[in-house]
Amino acid sequence: MAKAAAPPAMTKRDVATARQRPLWRFVPILIVLAGLALGSLLGWHRYLSLGYLGDSQQALQGLVANQPILAPLGFAICYTGAVAFSFPAASVLTVVGGFLFGWALGALLSVLAATAGATLLFLAARTALAGTLRRRLHGFSARLAEGFERDAFTFLLVLRLAPFIPFVVVNIAPALFHVRLRTFFAATLIGIIPGALAYAWLGEGVGSVLEAAAAAGRHVGLKDLVTPEITIAFAALTLVGLVAAVVKSRWRRSVRMARR
User: Fold this and answer.
1) What is the pLDDT of residue 160?
2) In total, how many domains does the chain have?
3) Radius of gyration over alpha carbons of the chain, in Å?
4) Res 12: pLDDT
5) Given a cut of 80, is residue 244 above it in pLDDT?
6) What is the rounded CA–CA span in Å between residue 24 and residue 22?
7) Range of the structural domain that residue 103 is part of
8) Most confidently predicted of 7-16, 48-57, 190-199
9) Residue 62 contacts residue 164 (beta carbons within 8 Å)
10) Number of Cβ within a 10 Å radius of residue 237
C-alpha cells in the first residue's frame, strides 16, 4: 500500500513560523482593530457618509477645484485607510468619488484605493492567521479548502462581483488559506471594477438628489441611490461569475479525464 503523501512544505513552514513568532505576528491585525476602535470612538464614520457629503457639498467641491492634485490624492489615501481599517464605507466613498471627480476618475481612484486597502488588510490578517483554520480542517471541509486554494482567483472574482457579501469578509477570508498575494491582488483589482463604475456613475449625478434631500430636511442614504436596475445588474454579474467558475471547473475535469 502506498504511503500517505506528506503535508505540503508550505503548511510545515507556516507551522514552524507560527511557533517561532507567536507574538509579533499579531501586531498588524491588532493595529487594524485599534484603528477601527479609535475611529469609532472619535466618530470618524460620520465623515464617511452621504449625510456629511450633503452638509459639506460646497466646501468639498471648492477644495477639489482649488487643489486638483492634492484633493484626489487625499481622497485615495482616506479611501485606502478606511478599507484597511475595515470601516464599512467603500460603496459610499465610491459614490463620493464619482460626485467630486466625475465617474471616470472617481471610479479609477476608488478601484486603486480599495485594492490597496484590501491588500493591506489581507496581509495583516494573513500574518496573524495564515494556516490557522486550514490546519484544523479534515475530510470534506479540507477538500473544499484545497479546491479553493487551487482556483482561488476564480473564487475570489465571484466573491468580489457578489453585491451581498461584505467587502471586509472577502478581504480577510482568503488569509485563512494559502492564497497568494498576487492572486488576491489581481482578483480584487478586476472584481471591484464593475461595482466601482456603477457607484461612481451614481455619484456623478447625486448632486440633484442631495439638493432635494436638503430641501426636505433629511439626509440621503445609499439605498436612496441604488435603483432596482443597479441591483439586478450586480446580481447578473455574480451569476456570470458563477457560470464561468462552473464551466472552468468542468473543462479542467474533462481535460484531466482525457489525459488518463
Assistant:
1) 82
2) 1
3) 21
4) 53
5) no
6) 6
7) 23-259
8) 190-199
9) no
10) 19
229 assigned to some structural domain: yes
Cell numbers standing for residue 116: 490597496
How wide is the angle at C-alpha 133 spanned by C-alphas 130 and 136, nearest 5°? 130
Three-class SS of residue 37?
A: helix
DSSP for 42-72 reads: HTGGGGSSHHHHHHTHHHHHHHHHH-TTHHH
- Given a cut of 70, whether residue 28 has pLDDT beyond it is yes
Neighbours of 109 (CB within 10 A): 24
Q: What is the pLDDT of residue 71?
A: 95
Please, which residues have CB within 8 angstroms of residue 17's CB and are 6 or more apart in sequence?
25
pLDDT category at 73 given cuts 50, 70, 90 is very high
Residue 1 belongs to a domain: no
Of the pLDDT bands very low, low, confident and very high (cuts 50, 70, 90), residue 2 is very low
DSSP 133-190: TGGG--HHHHHHHHHHHHTHHHHHHHHHH-TTS-HHHHHHGGGGTT--HHHHHHHHHH
